[in-house]
Amino acid sequence: MEFILILFLCPFAVVIASIIGFLLIKKWYVMPTVTLILFTILTFTVFNETFFFWVVVYTIISIIVSLFMKVIKK
């Protein structure tokens, strides 16, 4: 169950949150920052330290989606 959460649900939630966050706030760097902070907190409260690799991956996904939305918006 944790594998499905990490591999499918979290990236999907990050992509949706990055799109919605960019459309509401209009700044590309806000949602990657929120993603990094939120998942870092989850690393030390819910998951273990090995989850930090996925924190970096989710932050990179959020950066890519936010920059893509910025390019589309122009």
Features of the shown structure:
single chain; 74 residues
Q: What would your notes on this structure say?
A:
With 74 residues, the chain is an all-alpha fold. Helices cover 84% and strands 0% of the residues. It contains 3 helices and no strands. Helix 1 packs parallel to helix 3 (52-73) and helix 2 runs antiparallel to helix 3 (52-73). The longest helix has 24 residues, at 2-25. It is elongated and about 40 Å long. The termini are far apart. The model has no long low-confidence stretch (mean pLDDT 93).
Element layout with pairings:
Elements: H1 2-25, H2 30-45, H3 52-73
Helix pairs in contact: 1-2, 1-3, 2-3
